[in-house]
Write a structure and sequence with these properties.
Strand content: 35-45%
Shape: globular
Structural class: mainly beta
Strand order of the largest sheet: 2-3-9-4-7-6
Radius of gyration: 21 Å
C-alpha cells in the first residue's frame, strides 16, 4: 500500500505562486519548481540544471514548446531521475521526462526566481514533438539543443507522460494530491518573508484526508468535467447577501468547460461577464476604491492598507457542479484582498486578487484555494473530482 508524501512548499520565489524542492539527476541538483495545476510539463531553466553534469540522463528525440498566460519556453526533453528534497520528505528516484526550458526572446523571465515549473494537470497538456531524419525514421537527438538543426527534421506531434502521472503509474503514490496554501501574494509584513508561516504551505502527493490537522469539518466535491486542465462547471456566483447570478456555459464546443481550478494563477482571473457581475455588487464606495487604485485595465490594484476596511467587504460564493450535489465555495475578503503585499516606504499596501482576464472561462486561482484544503482526486469515477474542506490556519497565523 502506498504512503502519501508530504512536501513543504513556499510562495517566495515565484511572486506568490508556490514552489516545492526536488532533486534532479545524478549527482542530484536541487531545483525549486512552481506547482501548477494549470499545466502538465516539467520544465527546468538551464541556469539551474546542467545535463552535462547528470550521469543519469537519457537523451531523447523529443522537444517541447510551452506558452502560458505570462510566459513561454522551448527546449529538449531528457529522461532523468527526480527525487524529493528535505528531511521530512521521502521518495524513490523516478525516471521521468524533464524538459530544459530555454526562455523565448518574448518571455525571458519565466517563473520569477524559481528554477522551473512542475505541471500537475493531465497528459493532454503535455504536448511534445518527436524529431526524425527526413529521409527515414531514424530519431534525431534534441540534446545538445540546436534549434537550427531541428528546423530541417521531420516532426511528429506527440504527448508524453507528466511527472505526477509517472509517479502514480510507477506505484509510488495513489492517484491524488492535495494543496494547503494561505496566500496568493507574498506577505511582507514583519521580519523575513521566507520565515513567515503565512508564506508556507504543503503539497501532499498520494493523499490528503489523513492530514486532519490541515482542515476543518468535512469535504465537499466538485466534478472534473474534462481531463486536460482541472476543468469544472461553474453554475452561479453570489456576492454577500445578493441574488445568485447564473454563469453561462462555455461559448462553443471547442471550450470544454467554463472554469478551471488553477494553483498557478494567483488571482481569480474571471470572464468579463462573471467579473462584471461581482463588481456590480460592490458598494459605490468600494467600486471607486478599486478604480482609483488601478492604473490601467488589467494592472495590479494596490491600495494603502489604512484605506481598506475588510469588515465592510462581502464574501463571494462560487457554486460548482458536483458528482452528487452542487458545492458552494466561499472566498473571503481576506483572500481576495491580500494585505501586506508590498511595503513602500513605511506604508503597507494590499492587492486586489480579482480581475477580468478576457478569456472564455474563469480561472479559479489561489484566492479560492487559500480558503480550502484542496484534494485533486484523479481516481474518482468519471474524470475525477476536486475535494474542498475549510482550511485549518497555522497555530500562530501571521495574517
Amino acid at each position: 500500500m502506498t504512503q502519501p508524501i508530504k512536501l513543504s512548499i513556499r510562495n517566495i520565489l515565484a511572486g506568490g505562486d508556490y514552489t516545492g524542492t526536488f532533486m534532479v539527476g545524478s549527482p542530484p541538483q536541487a531545483v525549486h519548481l512552481l506547482l501548477d495545476t494549470g499545466s502538465s510539463a516539467l520544465g527546468i531553466k538551464p541556469s539551474f540544471y546542467d545535463p552535462n553534469k547528470d550521469t543519469a540522463k537519457t537523451i531523447t528525440n523529443i522537444g517541447q514548446q510551452m506558452l502560458y498566460g505570462t510566459g513561454g519556453w522551448d527546449g529538449p526533453v531528457l529522461k532523468t531521475t527526480v527525487t524529493f528534497a528535505g528531511e521530512d520528505q521521502k521518495g524513490q528516484a523516478l525516471d521521468v521526462n524533464v524538459a530544459i526550458a530555454y526562455p523565448t526572446p518574448e518571455n525571458p523571465h519565466n517563473f520569477g526566481e524559481a528554477s522551473g515549473i512542475l505541471g500537475l494537470a493531465f497528459r493532454p497538456l503535455d504536448n511534445a514533438t518527436r524529431y526524425f531524419e527526413q529521409s527515414n525514421d531514424h530519431p534525431v537527438a534534441t540534446w545538445p539543443y540546436d534549434p537550427a538543426m531541428l528546423e530541417g527534421a521531420q516532426r511528429i506531434p506527440s504527448q508524453i507522460d507528466p511527472f505526477f502521472s509517472a509517479l502514480e503509474q510507477a506505484g509510488v503514490v495513489a492517484n491524488q494530491f492535495a494543496l494547503y496554501t494561505l496566500r496568493s501574494m507574498v506577505r511582507h509584513a514583519g521580519g523575513d518573508p521566507a520565515q513567515d508561516p503565512a508564506n508556507q504551505g504543503y503539497l501532499i502527493l498520494g493523499g490528503g484526508e489523513e492530514f486532519t490537522d490541515l482542515y476543518q469539518g468535512h469535504f465537499s466535491a466538485a466534478s472534473i468535467v474534462h481531463p486536460a486542465y482541472y476543468n469544472t462547471n461553474l453554475l452561479e456566483v453570489t456576492v454577500g447577501a445578493g441574488k445568485p447570478v447564473s454563469v453561462a456555459p462555455p461559448p462553443n464546443r471547442f471550450v470544454v468547460s467554463n472554469s478551471i481550478v488553477d494553483s498557478g494563477t494567483n488571482s481569480l482571473a474571471l470572464t468579463k461577464a462573471v467579473y462584471d457581475a461581482i463588481f456590480a455588487e460592490f458598494s459605490a464606495e468600494q467600486q471607486r476604491l478599486i478604480q482609483a487604485h488601478t492604473p490601467a485595465p488589467g494592472a495590479l490594484t494596490l491600495v494603502p492598507g489604512d484605506a481598506l476596511d475588510l469588515s465592510g467587504w462581502p464574501t463571494i460564493s462560487f457554486v460548482l457542479a458536483g458528482p452528487s450535489e452542487n458545492v458552494t465555495l466561499e472566498v473571503s475578503p481576506q483572500t481576495y484582498w491580500q494585505t501586506d503585499t508590498a511595503i513602500i516606504g513605511k506604508k503597507s499596501f494590499a492587492s486586489f486578487g480579482i480581475n477580468d482576464q478576457g478569456g472564455p472561462n474563469s480561472i479559479l486561482g489561489l484566492p479560492l484555494l487559500n480558503n480550502y484544503f484542496t484534494i485533486f482526486d484523479r481516481s474518482a469515477p468519471g474524470h475525477g473530482r476536486i475535494m474542498f474542506a475549510k482550511i485549518q490556519p497555522p497555530a500562530s497565523p501571521a495574517s
